[in-house]
Amino acid sequence: MSISEEMYLHYHGLIVPKETHSYESLEFAQGFKFEDDDVLAVTYPKSGTIWMQEILPLVLNGGDLTPIHTIPNWERVPWLEEKQLARVVDKLASPRALVSHFPYNLMPPSFCTSKAKVIYVMRNPKDIMVSSYYFHQMAGFLEDPGTFDEFMDKFLEGKGQRSHMHKRRHARKSIFASSITIVVGSVTGQPMSASFAVMFGKWTDHMKSWRNSELGDRIMYITYEEMAQDLPAALRRISDFLGCNLTEEVIQKVAEHCSFKSMQNNNMSNFSLIPKVYMDHDKSPFLRKGNAGDWKNHFSSEQLTRFTSVISKELEGESFSLPWSLD
């Protein structure tokens, strides 16, 4: 069995990590019953998911800080497709908030027939790739990303093959299980050929699926960059979209507690509760920088040209425009 087969599940042409997903959790997601007042934040990985897990409870509860200070983010706003949802779904108060990395075509039937609202958060794909690269370095349940150049190839392809020195880890209980028994696997490097793929496929495929979803007034599009530049303004948009009509005082309160610095210091949000074997913050903090444009510190001119060429070609003929330049 290859490292990828040990670490990932294949699901409708995508790969997802076994540590947080199972075929049972994916089936549970397909059978999940959406209610009309549910709110779903959808992202491609590393596009602001954790930020939305902080924002949504505060907006939906009028700025009440209790949930974000007492409940881990993966329980207060669980992923639709992950194991944790089945454990906590009965504890979620209405209106329920969830997050998902699913492309639109994998959403369950009940979502399509409900009136549940969706906030789709987009981010500059160059920054997504940089953030994902560091995440693969620190996450013990993901494959080593190799060099930055290697990882760029895989990000652009959405899948691929490479031969590398891989980190082996024995099976463990889920990261987010309420009772964690850690069996630390030996970490041995040995040359082997293994499939390496990016979680949830190509960014372009994911983004296009939601931009072409035709959900009308059920969906709101917002960018990570918009939130980073003026969080209070972004919160007003979110509040209005969800019909929460927060006061300016509450907007400012929520913005303060959803700042990057505040989230870095919140143990319910910064993943410091997760054992080091799963997330090694010494290699890279989970909440690393939280700004826009960090790609400029990583891309060579050749890499930028290659990246821009591939993404631009894959978006040819689309009726929507991107909110940022790819150059």
UniProtKB/TrEMBL annotation:
GO terms for molecular function: sulfotransferase activity. Gene3D superfamilies: P-loop containing nucleotide triphosphate hydrolases (3.40.50.300). Its EC number is 2.8.2.-. The keyword Transferase applies. SUPFAM superfamilies: P-loop containing nucleoside triphosphate hydrolases. Pfam families: Sulfotransfer_1. It is an enzyme of class 2 (transferase). Keywords: Transferase. It comes from the Eukaryota. The keyword Transferase applies. Residues 36-316 form the Sulfotransferase domain. Belongs to the sulfotransferase 1 family. PANTHER family: SULFOTRANSFERASE SULT. This is Sulfotransferase. It comes from Astatotilapia calliptera (Eastern happy).
